[in-house]
Amino acid sequence: MSGVRAQQKQKTRQALIEAAFNQLSAEHSFSNLSLREVAREAGIAPTSFYRHFKDMNELGLTMVDEAGLTLRQLMRQARRRIASGGSVIITSVETFMEFIDTSSNQFRLLLRERSGTSKAFRAAVAREIKHFILELAHYLETETPCDKHHAYMQAEAMVTLVFNAGAEALDQDAQQRGELTERLIWQLRYIARGANHYGGQ
Amino acid sequence: MSGVRAQQKQKTRQALIEAAFNQLSAEHSFSNLSLREVAREAGIAPTSFYRHFKDMNELGLTMVDEAGLTLRQLMRQARRRIASGGSVIITSVETFMEFIDTSSNQFRLLLRERSGTSKAFRAAVAREIKHFILELAHYLETETPCDKHHAYMQAEAMVTLVFNAGAEALDQDAQQRGELTERLIWQLRYIARGANHYGGQ
DNA sequence: AATTTCAGCGTACAGTTGTACGCTAAAATA
DNA sequence: TATTTTAGCGTACAACTGTACGCTGAAATT
């Protein structure tokens, strides 16, 4: 197992994934990517692409998984910061904005494919976001005075706002982002306040 | 003015717009549309397309305007319903869900191009949504005990949640939509409650 | 009635796309 | 050592794309 051969294969597979991520940008979405261009950037012949993925769709789903993984890792790190005494809301927002800044193409993929033309893509992104919501809901349920159902709705609303703010931030400069983040934090406070009122135990 | 000629031109122009909207669907986004296919469905030769639009981009921006118009008209109608004694939150949500149901392709356009690959498109959609937010903010400021800044943030949060719920609803059956709508209404209540607490006068 | 304007057409072309097919050389296996 | 497996390549092709160019006939203008 794991001979020279399999190792090299894994390497070019990763090269394909990275080439595809590289070609995502503000002006280029996944559905505009061409198999040939991706193969070219990865340094292999177009037809060799098929040794790794059935088609572009399969590549895309792999990329969604990878982006979801990045996001989850980042949030795990956020939870550590919170545990050592940070504010939940502020730390989470900061962490998310960091994700957008350092992995903007991964975020763009999730953002766009959430409402894209492939049902499989939409489902995959929805799954990643649901992870996120469930984790937050669990936290809210155990750490704040809020019953289970309301904790879920609260988490859902919060994640939606954060995600959308991230989308807006993509087009903004530092100052606008600052204002956006400030508004976002107020909005999250509204939700926390309201949820604790209606769902308080 | 308005001779037979100009009238016919206007007619095929509209045919192009409608053909393009027709070709939008869950599986087909604007950027996948081809000039040739649109022209074909509108019943004109590919090259005649240029008599009406400089390129597909210009067509798309026109479509965004049209979708925005539809949405604004619908919301004006909602305001009448509210004036004659309906609940603000519930009436607005119902009206929006109606928009998604009866003009799903127009909604899909706004939804997707909001995070699409053309900055001009994103700006156009953002403008339509901002209209929406400002109107709601004005209502909240005058009709509820909430200062201007908080009214704006409240409106922004609410529109974000409604818009996103609409996006989710596109893939759902009647029952799921019912549950979604119920959650959405709770979430809007959270925001109203929180905003009035922090921004109450 | 003579002239101008212009929506729509057909032809043509160069560029790009996905992918079928068969080959090669090197790694893996027997 | 002999055989099998397979990642990657090159060639080839049909389908489709946007759009340049020049023509036509009818509406509009003079």
> N-to-C SSE series of chain A?
HHHHHHHH
What is the number of helices of chain A?
8
Amount of helix of chain A: over 70%
Mean pLDDT of chain A: 95
Task: Note the gap between the termini of chain A.
Answer: 56 Å
Largest sheet of chain A: none
The oligomeric state is homodimer
| Total number of beta strands of chain A | 0
- The shape of chain A is elongated
CATH topology of the largest domain in chain A: Tetracycline Repressor, domain 2
Low-confidence stretches of chain A: none
Structural class of chain A: mainly alpha
Radius of gyration of chain A: 19 Å
Protein name (chains A, B): DNA-binding transcriptional regulator FabR
InterPro entries (chains A, B): DesT_TetR_C, DNA-bd_HTH_TetR-type_CS, Homeodomain-like_sf, HTH_TetR, HTH_transcr_repressor_FabR
Keywords (chains A, B): DNA-binding, Transcription, Transcription regulation
GO molecular function (chains A, B): DNA binding
Task: Give the helices and strands, then pairings.
The structure is a homodimer of 201-residue chains.
Chain A: H1 4-23, H2 35-42, H3 56-83, H4 88-102, H5 104-113, H6 119-143, H7 148-169, H8 174-199
The structure holds a DNA duplex (30 and 30 nucleotides).
